[in-house]
Every structure is written in structure tokens, then in C-alpha cells.
Design goal:
This protein has a domain at 68-247 and 288-409: Alkaline Phosphatase, subunit A (3-Layer(aba) Sandwich). It has helices at residues 56-61, 91-98, 113-120, 126-129, 148-154, 201-219, 240-244, 286-316, 348-351, 379-386, 405-409, 520-534, and strands spanning 5-9, 16-20, 71-77, 101-103, 106-107, 158-163, 223-229, 323-329, 355-358, 368-370, 374-375, 419-426, 452-459, 468-477, 482-495. The protein is built from 12 helices and 15 strands. By secondary structure, the chain is an alpha/beta fold. Helices cover 22% and strands 17% of the residues. The longest helix is centred in the middle third of the chain and has 31 residues, at 286-316.
């Protein structure tokens, strides 16, 4: 670094470009922090998604087609946060974990249902899909986009499913080979009770899935069956026995971080029952916090029971050895963390979600847990790579996600991506000087009505700067529908040094050090890396 020039390596070629950032000498110790963000799509040395060093996996997948009889069972759980270790998981689900590779550091691109799903189901980031809230659809900009199920359909697989997948509108004719999609939304019981399992939405989805798996086993045609489970999303209604299997306790950190940026907070008023005037700065009573946390965990135990029954049925009908199973959440959730009871933020609690891959023909992955960072947009490219279908996707150059098949081929690898990216917008807040959190999460407004947006970069120990989360909040340009990067209204910087547990650790992201002089260099370097990524 010379003066205020930061060296940035382009992802599209082996070259070095110079970006004048006017950041001053404080950045010099961290001049390499705008590192090549590895791997990206296409990666910085020009490789494509077909050749990202995945070795044995690529060879095993070569030439595979729908005629080889391998299948995909894909299960999405709504609002599932990364704390499975604090939940009473059912034995059949634990059996699945023991035969899977669990990715403990998987990050979504936006912590709300529709944008996240439209993103990982097309391997594109929200700024590319143009889907930032509940009103838009990826096909508004990409009418012929090949989706995750669409790629399997085009390859000759039978593709269908049940429940909530794309969001409330279940895709299009591009995605599914069936015309009898079944969604039990609002058909189930509306209380925690001792009613039969199939009195609840996810119980109905389970029964439908068991029927279809039996049918697939008898027909012998390759399939991709997708299950969209609605729990642990509110409302927490499910069979009572799962509530009784769990305990709740008050949130360990029920207030916003010290030096919090108010743009990062959301009041969630309509999400919190019993308390009419709740804000992040006025925590719920301890007993209420414990009750809600127990109810949420009971919903996760219910999900583990549903998934476990499906796994058992795969074995019963003889499909276990030929069916890859992917299970993950669409984003996390705040269980009183930072004073919030909702998603709609850029904190670790909401941008991180569990992910597991069960690949019967890769036994080296069984029972492995990894801290290597991946993003949810990488799931689709990885699954297609494992099934040998990557090259059948005509628009794969539009992907922002990349296959992490290299981690599955060699689970001993501890490093993959060194940075992940998330974002969330805000509406209804004044520009400065406001006291309370945002009350409008922008879910059902035109994008022209956004006022601010926060972009977040999360690094790990393999980056030259270490493990941090940096979030910058800027004004939104309502005419060009993009961030105004030079109009900064707030910044957050949190250390994740030593954050190595598989479950969310509430002790992190508790002190925003963005304003501390000692953090100036780190903050500037992370901002430079985030902006370099945004400009790609």
C-alpha cells in the first residue's frame, strides 16, 4: 500500500487493480484485507463452477444423468436458527446427522423468507434477483431462469413437492413436472395440543411425502422431491409432547449491543404476543422469554421428528442408498437476542442457519461437522455438481453461488470461503437522531419506498484480517433502486475472534466497536472488501 491506495485483486482475472479509497495511513497494517474473496463465481482466476477444485466429487459425478437412478430429497425448514445442540432432537433425525456432513457456518443472503428462498433456489444474490421483500419474484427479471428444481426437471427427473418452498407462490411451470402441488397452509390445528400428528400442517406434509416416496420406489423414475416445512416459524402450533421435551430460559443477552446502531434493530411489535408495547430496549419479562424459547425449541423438535420419519421411510421403501438428502433453514431467528423476537436483521443470529448434506455415495462425509464458511446460494451448485448436472444449466454463468464439493470430497479441509455477505433494508425511519428501533421491515412495500439498506460482510479466521462482522447502513436510491454507498448513516463492527461453537453464541456481537479509534483500520479494510464485492 502506498499512501491511500488499497490493492484489490479482481475475481475475474489474475491481475491487481488499484482503488483510491482516501482511507489514510490507518489502513496500512491491513492493506491486504481486500483479499480475493475465495471462492467466488466465477472465481478470481477465471475458473467456472464446473472446475472449482473438487477432485473426486467431480470424477464421481462425471457422466451421471437422470437414468442412473440417483435422487434428491430436499427439505427446507422455516426460521430455523443455528442452535440444534440446544434442542431435543429425535433419534431418527440424529441418525441422519450421523450420516451427514453438517455445515455449522452457513450464511443466508437475506434474513426473511421470500428474498432468501428466491436467492438460494436460483444461486443468485438478492441484488441480482431484484427480490428484497415479499412483493417481487425472481422471474420478474429472469423469466426463464433455471431454478434448483427446474434444473432437475430439465434433466428428466420428476420434480414436485409439498408445503412452502419458493414462498407462498410455488414456482412455475419452469420448476415442477407436476400439476398437483399440495400445500396444507392454514389447514392445520391452531394450538399446542394432544391432537394427532396429521392434524398439523407439517404432519400433513409428512404424510404426503411418505406416500410419494412409496410411489417413487414402485415407479423407479429418478426424482427430486422438495418438502417445505413451516415450523419453527410462528405460530408455534404442534403436538404438545414436543414442547414437553424441551426447556426454556431467559435470553442471555436480551438487550441491543453496546453502542448499537439503531438501523440494525427492528421492534417486531406484531411478532411478540402478550406484550403490547415492546421494543428491543425494554426486554420481555424473564418468564415470558423462557416460555417463548421453550415453544420455539418444541417446534424444532417437531421438525426433527417429521424429518426423521421421512428418513426412516426412505430406508423402508429401499431408496436410502440412492437418495441424497439436503436439509437446511431459510434463515435464522432472534430468540430475544439483542432484544428482538424476529428475523429481519443482519446479525449472526438471523443470517446463520443449519445445513446438512447426506450423500450416501460419499461415506467420508458421514458424521462430519465443519466450520468452513459457505453460503446458502452455494447449495444449488453443489447439489448439481454431485449429481453431474452442472453443465445442463444454460444460465449457470448467472450464478453467484459456487459448489463446495471440495469440502465433501475432502472433509478434512478447514477453510473454504473467507467472507460471506448478507443484507437487509429499512423503511419508516428518520435519517438521524431517532431513539427507538425501526418499526417497518419493508416486507410489503414497493422497493422505491425503501429508505436505507444495510450490507454486511462476515469474515473468518482464514482471512488476513481475522474473524469480524462489519455492516454499513446507507441511504437507498429510490429511483435507481440501489444503495447510495457514499451516504452512510450507520456502521457496525463486531469481533468474532474465538467464535468456534456449532451453535449461536450470544456472547458475540455484543459491543459495536465501529467508532473506536483502534478499529479504524479494520473497519476501513472490511468496508473496502464489501464495496469491492458489491461492485462485481
Amino acid at each position: 500500500m502506498v499512501g491511500d491506495v488499497l490493492v484489490v485483486v479482481s475475481r475475474s482475472m489474475r491481475c491487481v487493480s488499484y482503488v483510491w479509497l482516501a482511507l489514510g495511513p490507518a489502513l496500512c497494517p491491513y492493506a491486504d484485507a481486500a483479499w480475493p474473496l475465495q471462492p467466488s463465481a466465477p472465481t478470481w482466476d477465471g475458473r467456472t463452477n464446473e472446475s472449482i477444485g473438487i477432485g473426486g466429487v467431480q470424477q464421481q459425478a462425471a457422466g451421471r444423468s437422470a437414468t442412473t437412478g440417483r435422487n434428491l430429497l430436499y427439505i427446507i425448514s422455516d426460521d430455523l436458527r443455528s442452535e440444534l445442540g440446544r434442542v431435543n432432537l429425535q433419534p431418527s433425525f440424529q441418525k441422519l446427522v450421523d450420516k451427514s456432513m453438517m455445515f455449522d457456518r452457513t450464511f443466508v443472503q437475506q434474513a426473511v423468507c421470500n428474498p432468501s428462498r428466491q436467492s438460494f433456489l436460483t444461486a443468485r444474490r438478492p441484488d441480482k434477483t431484484g427480490v428484497w421483500n415479499m412483493k417481487a419474484n425472481v422471474r420478474d427479471l429472469f423469466p426463464n431462469a433455471v431454478s434448483f428444481p427446474g434444473a432437475f426437471k430439465n434433466a428428466g427427473f420428476e420434480t414436485c413437492g409439498v408445503g412452502k418452498v419458493f414462498h407462498h407462490s410455488e414456482g412455475s411451470h419452469h420448476d415442477w413436472s407436476c400439476d398437483d402441488w399440495y400445500d396444507p397452509k392454514k389447514l392445520g390445528a391452531s394450538k399446542i395440543s394432544d391432537l394427532p400428528d396429521n392434524s398439523y400442517e407439517d404432519g400433513m406434509a409428512m404424510d404426503r411425502t411418505l406416500e410419494k416416496l412409496s410411489e417413487f420406489a414402485s415407479k423407479g423414475k429418478p426424482f427430486m422431491w422438495t418438502v417445505g416445512l413451516r415450523k419453527p416459524h410462528l405460530a408455534w402450533f404442534y403436538p404438545k409432547r414436543f414442547l414437553d421435551m424441551n426447556k426454556g430460559e431467559p435470553a442471555p443477552e436480551p438487550l441491543p449491543p453496546r453502542n448499537a446502531c439503531n438501523y440494525s434493530l427492528y421492534e417486531c411489535t406484531e411478532r411478540v404476543r402478550d406484550i403490547p408495547h415492546h421494543t428491543p430496549y425494554s426486554p420481555l419479562p424473564a418468564a415470558t422469554q423462557a416460555k417463548y424459547r421453550q415453544q420455539y425449541r418444541g417446534a424444532v423438535t417437531w421438525v426433527s421428528y417429521v424429518v426423521g420419519n421421512i428418513v426412516d421411510h426412505l430406508e423402508k421403501v429401499g431408496l436410502a442408498d440412492s437418495t441424497m438428502l439436503i436439509f437446511h433453514g431459510d434463515h435464522g431467528w432472534n430468540l430475544g437476542d439483542h432484544g428482538m423476537w424476529c428475523k429481519q436483521s443482519n446479525f449472526e443470529t438471523t443470517t446463520r442457519a443449519p445445513l446438512l448434506f447426506h450423500v450416501p455415495w460419499l461415506p467420508q462425509t458421514f458424521g462430519v461437522r465443519t466450520n468452513a464458511m459457505v453460503e446458502m446460494i452455494d447449495v444449488m451448485p453443489t447439489a448439481l455438481e454431485l449429481m453431474g448436472l452442472t453443465e445442463t444449466v444454460h444460465d449457470r454463468q448467472e450464478w453467484d453461488g459456487v459448489s463446495f464439493g471440495g469440502l465433501l470430497a475432502d472433509p478434512s479441509k478447514r477453510v473454504w470461503k473467507n467472507a460471506t455477505f448478507s443484507q437487509y433494508q429499512r423503511c419508516g425511519a428518520p435519517e438521524e437522531g431517532f431513539t427507538f428501533a425501526i418499526t417497518d421491515p419493508c416486507e410489503y412495500v414497493p422497493t422505491s419506498e425503501f429508505r436505507f439498506i444495510g450490507h454486511s460482510i462476515r469474515t473468518d479466521e482464514s482471512s488476513s484480517i481475522g474473524a469480524w462482522r462489519y455492516t454499513v447502513w446507507v441511504k437507498w436510491d429510490p429511483s435507481k433502486l440501489r444503495p447510495q454507498w457514499d451516504e452512510v448513516v450507520g456502521e457496525e463492527l463486531y469481533s468474532h475472534d474465538g467464535d468456534a461453537e456449532p451453535d449461536i453464541d450470544a456472547g458475540f456481537e455484543r459491543v459495536n466497536v465501529a467508532s473506536e479509534p483502534s478499529a479504524l483500520g479494520k473497519k476501513a479494510a472490511l468496508r473496502a472488501a464489501l464495496l469491492a464485492h458489491a461492485a462485481e
